[in-house]
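Subject: Sanity check before I submit

Could someone independently write out the structure tokens for this chain? I want to compare against mine line by line before I put it in a report. The sequence has 246 residues.
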Amino acid sequence: MADEGVKQWLVPYLMTELCYEEFFLQLNFLHVPCLKILISKGLGIGIIAGSLMVKLPQIFKIVGAKSAEGLSFNSVLLELLAITGTMVYSIANSFPFSAWGEALFLMLQTVAIGFLMHYYTERTVKGVLFMAVYFAVLSVLLCPITPMSVVTLMQATNMPAVIFSRLIQAGTNLKNGHTGQLSAVTVFLLFAGSLARIFTSIQETGDPLMALTYVVSSLCNGIIAFQLLYYWNARPGKVEDDKKKK
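---
Independent answer below. Compare away.
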């Protein structure tokens, strides 16, 4: 009974029936295909668990400072487009939740950041309208009557959306000479998560479009992570004082 309970917990969340037999009945712990599945599933679950809080440091930083200075709303919109594309495309193709689940939680947190950016610039009504329009569009995209060609096209736009999103934020950082209220924890977790997703998307979906999206995302997240390190000691007030001195 105990073995059956363990099997029900492991299959299908961490491994297939075949892999359970290889590991626990044949004691073949070096079965490479099954090891890949186990690592991929483990990484996927870890990424999803991390996504529950990956953007919370960013949200707390904005709320604590009562400011979204240094953040680009256009960048947030493009990032939201990319996240939504991945989520809708994965649901439409019935990919396992472990392959895309973090997109759901990243979407909710990104929407919250978009609202806070309006709220702290005294545009609360626009913030509420932004959320209402977004969730209305999301409902339409998830509706079965939405053509698969539209969903696939949205996923295909992920790469340019990710690139422009990060380039806009990178340009804002460069222009300001600091990274403002960007959270280092959030940026580095996003970078690590996108790197790990390259492997899990290849292993669990076999979809080259998904894998390529995460390759591009990793490169772009790496740029922002580099800027955070480069501007580590630069703060908005300090930069303004230095400009005045000059």
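---
OP: Matches mine. For the report I'm noting this point. The mean pLDDT is 84.
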